[in-house]
Amino acid sequence: MFPDHDVRVPLYLPFVCLFIYLFVLLVPLFPLPDFLKPLVELQEAPHSASCPLPGESPPVPQRASRFAQWAISLTFDLRSHSCSLKVSKDGLTVTVSHCPQTHLWSHERFVTCQALCSQAFYSGRQYWEVDTQRCSHWAVGVASWGMKRTQILGRTSDSCCIEWKGTGQLSAWHMVEETVLGSDRPMVVGIWLDLEEGKLAFYSVANQEKLIYECPVPGSSPLHPAVWLYGLNPGNSLTIRPVNA
């Protein structure tokens, strides 16, 4: 049974429906009022947790290093680096310069594009990382302060390194001998110097820690972190990066 009373429709309801219809139909044809723009922008703004856009790579998660407790702070030494190199103000980046730097000549300066860090290690365990992504041909390792300034890192009995050649070859140099390691280029190199056990190890640590090469500590301590850069490519640079704790 239907109710015996009348259902009355408000007289203005048809006009409301017509207004909504015309609003939806005509609004896209006219500029949006300023007071409504923040609401639209808020709705259209991408959420921070949204999926990457097409063509974008997802961010690489920063993983903690198992060597973090032995991480050390380093800076490049201003006395030893070649005149073809310049050191950043924070001392963490060394770059091949377009023009020779106007440093005073010193017998402590390397002839080639090499540099030592100021810190020297006599004992204990140390760990640091070097970002190599902006260098086409490089070497990272350790050397004694007494290494001859005309010699190349790894080609002496008191230095050791791994070297990436621009031709696509990764090698290790220890006691003047080269060991070819393969063709995978490490974008970030972790160096583990264990003077208690007399071991030196190199890791690829950009995405995960992978051992590249291990050898006895060269020569006698103290040892300095050391780098070499290919000098014919101005702009090539190596950076000491913070270790993720």
UniProtKB/TrEMBL annotation:
Q: Which domain of life is it from?
A: Eukaryota
For whether the record's keyword set contains Lyase, the answer is no
The keyword Transmembrane helix is assigned to this record: yes
For molecular function, the Gene Ontology terms on record are: ribonucleoprotein complex binding; ubiquitin-protein transferase activity; zinc ion binding
The B30.2/SPRY domain covers 54-245
Q: Which Gene3D superfamilies match?
A: 2.60.120.920
List UniProt keywords, sorted A-Z. Membrane, Metal-binding, Transmembrane, Transmembrane helix, Zinc, Zinc-finger
Q: Which GO terms describe its biological process?
A: regulation of innate immune response
Taken from the UniProt entry, a GO cellular component term is: cytoplasm
Q: Where are the transmembrane segments?
A: 12-32
CDD domains the record matches = SPRY_PRY_RNF135
For this entry, the protein name equals: B30.2/SPRY domain-containing protein
**Species of the source:** Neovison vison (American mink)
